[in-house]
Amino acid sequence: MATLNEDARNLLSRPVYAWVTTLRPDGSPHSTVVWVDVDGDEIIFNTAIGRAKERYLRKDPRVSIGVLDPDDAYHLVSVSGLARLEIDGADAVIDHLAKKYLGADSYPFRRSSEQRITVRVKPQNVIHNVGR
């Protein structure tokens, strides 16, 4: 099991967009941009039940998450691990991420028909470059 050092945690804690890669049923990669944060030793992001990320992670929990510092293209964190899906508290997590990324008290794009779900990733492999 790999761990995040303080600099990696700090970068992941900033409102920097991340890309998440999951695996489609045919094994091909599926990458999307997401909001992320750090919670303890885990990286978290949020999605809605039924979306591609959630469906793919239920079948294959392997996931990769990367962030690139917009101020220094050599400062990055890339993490791979296994995803754990969690419904409890998912609405609070998306509201927290909306505050972090948008300054909004609650997630403004919420649809009444969707159920949010939090994805938690415990790092198994970490690539970290402190930049220039």
Automatic annotation (TrEMBL):
The keyword Nucleus does not apply. It comes from Candidatus Protofrankia californiensis. This is Putative F420-dependent protein. Keywords: Oxidoreductase. The keyword Metal-binding does not apply. Residues 5-126 form the Pyridoxamine 5'-phosphate oxidase N-terminal domain. GO terms for molecular function: coenzyme F420 binding; oxidoreductase activity, acting on the CH-CH group of donors. PANTHER family: HEME OXYGENASE HI_0854-RELATED. One of its GO terms (cellular component) is cytosol.
